[in-house]
Specification:
It contains 16 helices and 26 strands. The protein is an alpha+beta fold and about 575 residues long. It has four domains: about 140 residues, no CATH class; about 180 residues, Umud Fragment, subunit A, CATH 2.10.109.10; about 60 residues, Peptidase S8 propeptide/proteinase inhibitor I9 (Alpha-Beta Plaits, 2-Layer Sandwich); about 30 residues. The strands form seven sheets. Strands 1, 2, 3, 8, 22, 23, 24, 25 and 26 form a nine-stranded antiparallel β-sheet that branches. A four-stranded antiparallel β-sheet has the order 11-10-9-16, with no helix packed on it. The protein has a four-stranded antiparallel β-sheet with strand order 13-14-12-15. Helix 5 crosses helix 6. The longest helix is centred in the last third of the chain and has 28 residues.
């Protein structure tokens, strides 16, 4: 049995023993301590707290804090009110409650009547902070979470610098795997570079609450990055597995050579992260469990049929001009945000640019443009960075598959050829021992010719197809990695050009001012709703009118009340 379950069982038993005796001292029947959930109701009765606290007690991430608070209040109700006693009850109630329960002088005097006490400054602020942490944790875990778009893989649907809210209820909130963690921190403690914000000695299994729906084809989805189960701390923006393929595992683990740009080792320590603490990514779900996916000359096919194509989907194009350079006005007109490469071949100079589908024909009409040709990796050209990273599968960005997307309960035939497509699922995501020996496959020490999947899986791709590290590179997204659905962009700030070394990065408020007042494309993204086809109209002006309307109403109401008080 997992250590987490043993500890949970031990803590529960000791707590129940304490409650069994304390209930009797307080005049309640001892057997009530043995009934799950009902014992919490009696506990709340003894400390005179409302019944709805029960919902907070069963909320992962909040329940441990609530049990600590309830243990402290129960100790006070039994006249244990010194600083040491209250601290012991809050931190280790599962030990302290049984301890006081079997002391001869323990008596129930009831909870402290705080209505007669004038709260101190420290107490007021402590209660306010605790309430804010609990409320925000509940909202963040089960309803909505703030998120920032970190990469350009979904340009122009989602852009770098978009600040949005992700709905957890769309697909059902996922119970945290590591509920004992620092509030509002993802995987690293604030003001540190590598200190974990969570403890791993206590973990919960995967469980998802019912949601408003399930992930559908073409949904834009936020998920935990699957390849992020292992991370090189000094190269967190790169896939650990790709680093091992590029440099060799031994180099990644043991190379202590200093990177002159950072002053630190190139790779640093190697750490593992649980699913809920892996980086958040956002992509479009192009294939769901049970689908078969293929890409033929850039055309995506799902179950043999052409897939949905967003108007703003981007590919790389080879653009030749009449010899003139691409002007900044033209770049702005076509909203070309990705780096522009200037190269040369036997026919002369050309640009390589990423361009949305709905801009291609328009660009061809520009007088200085002589040709616009798509850049397509040919059939049979092996790309070692593309799944499954084996020369036997000569797949690339533009010609890929066919590939079956695993579905919970589905059984497939496996052999030494196709096992490379699903070995990561079998080993890493579904926890099996996998070994290939003498041309045979062994799963959990038994020879296997078939495998039945335990979870649903998804295939994610970016709309910026030639500038997106997605499932083509690192494979399937398990259902236990799905976080939620982007629903609302409340702010969008244009980042400085990272390739421009001559300009110093401007401050946040300067970028906000530029995006809000000088950049029309960004301004129209403020206060917009997200759909698979793009963004709704901006509701920024409506929000401003509403805020000023509320402010005006409160202002004049208070002014009128003050005038009436004067006249009285």
């Amino acid at each position: 049995m997992d250590t987490s379950y043993l500890l949970l069982i031990l803590f529960s038993i000791t707590t129940v023993i304490g409650l069994w005796k304390l209930f009797a001292i307080a005049g309640e029947k001892s057997w009530k301590a043995l009934v799950p959930f009902y014992n919490f109701i009696i506990w709340l009765k003894l400390i005179k707290k409302p019944w709805w606290w029960l919902f907070l007690i069963i909320t992962p991430g909040v329940n441990f804090l609530m049990v600590g608070i309830m243990s402290l209040l129960l100790a006070k109700a039994f006249n244990k009110r010194s600083f040491v006693e209250k601290t012991a009850a809050f931190i280790a109630g599962f030990i302290y409650l049984p301890y006081i329960a079997f002391q001869k002088d323990t008596t129930y005097i009831g909870p402290e009547d705080i209505s007669k006490l004038k709260p101190s400054f420290v107490r007021e602020w402590t209660e306010a902070i605790v309430f804010a942490v609990v409320a925000a944790t509940v909202i963040r875990t089960f309803f909505f979470e703030a998120f920032t778009i970190p990469t350009s893989s979904l340009e122009k649907s989602m852009m770098v610098g978009d600040y949005l809210f992700v709905s957890k209820i769309s697909f059902g909130a996922k119970i945290p795997n590591t509920p004992l963690s620092f509030p509002f921190a993802h995987h690293t403690l604030p003001f540190t570079e590598s200190t974990k914000s969570y403890v791993e000695w206590f973990k919960l299994p995967y469980f998802r609450l019912p949601g408003l729906g399930s992930v559908k084809n073409n949904d834009i989805v936020v998920f935990n990055y699957p390849d992020g189960d292992t991370v090189a701390l000094n190269a967190q923006d790169q896939s650990y597995y790709q680093l091992c393929r590029d440099y060799g595992r031994n180099v990644v683990w043991h190379n202590k050579e200093i990177n002159p740009q950072t002053g630190k080792p190139y790779f640093g320590d190697i750490v593992a992260r649980p699913p809920d603490k892996r980086e958040n990514y956002v992509k479009r779900c192009v294939a769901i469990a049970g689908d078969t996916l293929a890409i033929i000359n850039q055309q995506l096919l799902i179950n043999g049929k052409p897939a949905y194509v967003a108007e703003t989907m981007q590919y790389t194009y080879k653009v030749r001009t009449d010899g003139s350079t691409l002007s900044s006005k033209l770049i702005e007109k076509f909203d070309i945000t990705d780096p522009i490469r200037y190269e040369q071949d036997s026919a002369g100079l050309f640009y390589l640019i990423n361009l949305p589908n709905n801009k291609v024909d328009e660009l061809k009409k520009v007088s200085s443009i002589k040709s616009v040709e798509p850049v397509i990796e040919p059939v049979g050209e092996y790309n070692p960075r593309i799944l499954p990273h084996k020369p036997t599968y000569k797949w690339n960005n533009d010609n890929f598959g066919p590939l079956y997307i695993p579905k919970r309960g589905a059984t497939i035939t496996i052999d030494t050829t196709n096992i490379v497509l699903y070995d990561r699922i079998i080993k890493n995501y579904e926890g099996n021992d996998l070994e290939i020996k003498d041309g045979k496959i062994f799963i959990n020490s038994k020879e296997a010719a078939t495998y039945t999947f335990k979870l649903d899986y998804y295939f994610m791709m970016g709309d910026n197809r030639h500038n997106s590290a997605d499932s083509r590179y690192w494979g399937f997204v398990p259902e236990d990695h799905i976080v939620g659905k982007p629903v609302f962009i409340w702010m969008s700030i244009k980042e400085d050009n990272k390739n421009n070394n001559n300009k110093q990065q401007s401050g946040f408020f300067k970028k906000l001012k530029t995006s809000l007042f000088d950049d029309t494309a960004r301004r129209t993204r403020f206060f917009t709703f997200v759909s698979k086809d793009g963004l709704s109209r901006s509701y920024l002006i409506h929000f401003i009118v509403l805020v000023f309307g509320i402010w005006g109403f409160v202002y004049f109401k208070n002014k009128r009340a003050a005038k009436n008080n004067k006249s009285d």
